[in-house]
Amino acid sequence: MKPTRRPANPCFSSGPCAKRPGWSPAALNGALLGRSHRSRGGLAKLVEVIERSRKLLQMPADYRLGIVPASDTGAVEMALWSLLGARGVDVLAWESFGEGWVTDVTRQLQLPDVRLMRAPYGRLPDLASVDPTRDTVFVWNGTTAGVRLPDGDWIAGDREGLTICDATSAAFAMRLPWPKLDVVTWSWQKALGGEAAHGMLALSPRAVARLESYTPPWPLPKIFRLTSGGKLNEGIFRGETINTPSMLCVEDALDSLRWAESVGGLDALIARAEGNLACVAAWVEQTPWLEFLAEDPATRSCTSIQLKITDPWFLGLSPELRFKTVRSMTARIEAEGAGYDLASHRDSPPGIRIWAGATVERSDVEALLPWFDWAWAEERHAAEAA
């Protein structure tokens, strides 16, 4: 039977993600449009984003935090190009974004001493084999695999190398072990549901020391330069962004941060995301035609939930037909206005991906799930009729 109840907010995309509950364009009324971001008012807005983010994420006081261009990608690129090369590096990859950093390190930077630690979709690499004397590059949450790190216990507290963590789909929904992380990056449009093109870069004192003691042998574009005269460019971490930010996006980010504070801060955000995961897990337990892509329950993402279809009929299809079937099934749901952007990422196994971070209401997740059962039954019926 076709469900009769639809999510109040049918947006389940993994980036940009759903806006916070109750959002409307009126939230942007305070934006300093037509004003310089270098003005006293503009700079104050940027500093407010930094300080609210720092407090909300419970970041150590001695970490620097700045707004940088080009989203999370830009923030990670700045770290890789500015910090790597001083020692050997281990790069972890278990989904497409981690593989993107593999490409940067091996093909673009062409570092001579690189160890690649890979795992197939659904699993994590062997974390015990990471060498604490080397730098380490990794994502915290695999957005295209739905597989996250369960903790930071595998990171040595007395490590010699730096840890560079792409945390964009983990920030504001998972607890990050700050003392174990030297570089942390994220963007507003992932867990906060913000608008595009702005990244956040957090640096530990160890990362700052590396920047001030090591100069990479390759030229750095202007937007990557974190130092001046051998010293950290402190202005970046005081709201003096390298290129012009959108004050409209800044206002939207502030609205999201204020909302997050109003619902109870980080603990409440984590509880909301974990509650959404629990809702999906209970449904999967009762649904015979799919499973979590993450093989270990401890590694299931609570933001980018990835499900694989295990029905024998589906598995008997060619890879091309599997993708077409998933696209057709999710298109049925979209046509009903019950859920948008639900197909898995193009690089991951064909299946379902549901963004379930803290800006998503559990009631909307509950309303969405029966639509998958209906759309799947429709697909099977259409295939049998053909």
Keywords:
9 helices, 3-stranded antiparallel beta sheet, 14 strands, 15% strand, Aspartate Aminotransferase, domain 2, 7-stranded mixed beta sheet, 386 residues, Aspartate Aminotransferase, domain 1
**CATH architectural grouping of the largest domain:** 3-Layer(aba) Sandwich
- Percent helix, as a range, is 25-40%
Shape, per Cα inertia axes: globular
Largest sheet, described in full? 7 strands, mixed
Task: Walk me through the topology.
Layout: H1 40-56, E1 64-69, H2 71-83, E2 89-93, H3 96-108, E3 114-118, E4 135-139, E5 141-142, E6 147-148, E7 163-166, E8 183-187, E9 198-203, H4 205-213, E10 227-228, E11 231-232, H5 247-262, H6 265-285, E12 290-292, E13 304-309, H7 312-315, H8 319-335, E14 351-355, H9 362-385
Parallel strand pairs: 2-3, 2-4, 4-7, 7-8
Antiparallel strand pairs: 1-9, 5-6, 8-9, 10-11, 12-13, 13-14
Helix pairs in contact: 1-5, 6-9, 8-9
Q: What features would you describe in this structure?
A:
The mean pLDDT is 97. With 386 residues, this protein is α/β, with parallel strands linked by helices. Helix 1 runs parallel beside helix 5, helix 6 packs parallel to helix 9 (362-385) and helix 8 (319-335) packs across helix 9. It has a 7-stranded mixed sheet with strand order 1-9-8-7-4-2-3, sandwiched between helices. The protein has a 3-stranded antiparallel sheet with strand order 12-13-14. The protein is built from 9 helices and 14 strands. It has 2 domains: 25-260, 3-Layer(aba) Sandwich (Aspartate Aminotransferase, domain 2); 265-385, Aspartate Aminotransferase, domain 1.
